[in-house]
Design brief:
mainly alpha
């Protein structure tokens, strides 16, 4: 799930829109989760290609730890996404960033109630600007 935030509108300085920090957390969590998935896949492939019983046993033993790490990374990603959904933007650029995130989020996630909350946060700010 990718979302595009134009780099020209991202401001990480103190007092900047908190949405950008939340989106960075999601990006970092997604990277860790992707690495965890790759590690599990590599361990599975390695166990299939191992030539001795002891190597297969080692790969399968390691697989449990890798699966646990991947599950932890998946939970961290879920929590980071929820932070974005519950962070009210404080700028028009933040609103745009949230809308981009929501477009990607709605394609894959069934958790609509939190998405509606995030849309409400965006609508509230936009109504004060208009």
């Amino acid at each position: 799930m990718d979302y595009i935030v134009p780099t020209s509108v991202v401001d990480f300085s103190p007092g900047s829109d908190p949405v950008f920090a939340a989106l960075k957390t999601v990006r970092d969590a997604r990277e860790l989760h992707s690495q965890g998935l790759r590690n599990v896949d590599e361990a599975l492939l390695s166990s299939r290609n191992s030539s001795t019983q002891s190597m297969i046993a080692w790969d399968l033993y390691r697989l449990q730890d890798l699966e646990a790490e991947e599950a932890t990374a998946a939970l961290a990603l879920l929590m980071a996404e929820r932070i974005v959904l519950n962070t009210a933007p404080t700028s028009l650029a933040g609103c745009i960033a949230v809308l981009h995130f929501l477009q990607a989020y709605l394609k894959t996630e069934p958790d609509i109630a939190q998405t509606v909350n995030a849309i409400g946060n965006v609508a509230a700010l936009l109504s004060t600007v208009a």
